[in-house]
Amino acid sequence: MLAGATFPDLRGRSVLITGGGSGIGAALTEGFLRQGARVAFVQRRDGAAFCDAMQEATGVRPLFLRCDITQTGALRDAVAEAARLHGPIGILVNNAANDERHASLDVTEAYWDQAMAVNLRSYFFAAQAVIPGMRAAGGGAIVNFSSISYMMGQAGYAAYTTANSGINGLTRSLAREFGPDRIRVNALAPGWVLTQRQKDLWATPEALAGHLARQCLPDPLMPEDVVGGCLFLASDISRAMTGQALVIDGGVVVTG
To answer: Ketoreductase domain spans which residues (predicted)?
Structure first.
């Protein structure tokens, strides 16, 4: 984990991260733990070993709640349990996603529905579950992870890029609807972050070289590179920022 800024207002805050035990999510969990937050995370696979590692690394153990986020009832139950054990959730990070590659002509209705359930529907229902508690507390922050893939018009995973675009629409609508309650909703769009999954499946030397040639900055992105941006969006330091998309991609998607 890179040394970074300290956000004192995150200390003691109740944070829920979807998919918080691997990849980018694992880096986010560690980042919030190091800020002194009370972190709960949900995922389908067992998170005990990761919790052990976090306790050893940070001195604090995150709360792991096994949950399939495509099952809305189970997701609501996990939100309620996290709030019961850590206090009302003040920060939600919708991070879980599946960027599986697929050919558009091979996509079935069942595949499409599952892709939307993971990559978009769960974001809405997680937000819906935490918003009443945020309202009662006088505010909160939701960070929805998207991707630059939809901005680039990339082929090879149309269901995923469709969901990414939808996340930005969802972010703006929720920001408008719940802004009067001082609930801020922002999106964070990373570029190609080299998680272990990416390295194992798609980050061939040729593919990586081609992508780095499109970045303004020469270095590949690692999971810890997006943590600071997420902490910023979750912190009151960004209290006047909502309905926005923060891009952290090394300069692939540039304007001007």
So the answer is: 13-192
